[in-house]
Design goal:
The chain is mainly alpha-helical. About 55% of the residues lie in helices and about 5% in strands. The relative contact order is 0.18. Bound molecules: zinc ion.
Length: about 140
């Protein structure tokens, strides 16, 4: 009956995949969606100022974000090379040159989203720990 969904700010374990992924896409905190995950280009926040979910995690966590980035890059290169060779029928050398540039430019461009989506997945699977310390700016 009606829209029975309750979006009142994160009281319950209200983790919808669509909600969290759309927050990740917009580089927002996966838990509350209130504030940005980054405080500047390539600078991830320590924690969410709104709900105190911790963004900076243990060392190993970083590997997952990089892995997500590498996989996305490889997937993109695969798709682009297929499409290019089939649709444009240019020489293989031209395609390789274009893919090389793409491989250089895409990972830094995707850096923020790979982090954001990785945080989102982590939030969906096991939730984010809360930052316990004092506020650091
Ligand atoms: Zn938050």
């Amino acid at each position: 009956m009606g829209t029975g969904r309750d979006f009142s700010s994160g009281l319950k374990d209200n983790r919808s995949v669509v909600t969290v992924m759309s927050r990740s896409l917009r580089l927002k905190c996966p838990a509350c969606g209130q504030s940005s995950t980054f405080k500047g280009p390539f600078r991830i926040r320590n924690h969410c100022p709104s709900c105190r979910s911790l963004f900076k995690r243990e060392e190993g966590f970083f590997v997952g974000a990089i892995l997500a980035n590498v996989m996305a890059t490889e997937f993109l290169i695969l798709v682009v090379s297929m499409v290019w060779l089939v649709v444009f029928k240019t020489s293989y050398e031209t395609v390789l040159a274009a893919l090389f540039i793409l491989a250089l430019l895409f990972p830094p461009a995707f850096y923020h989203h790979s982090w954001s989506f990785w945080l989102g997945f982590d939030y969906l699977i096991e939730s984010l720990p809360k930052y316990e310390g004092r506020d650091l700016k």
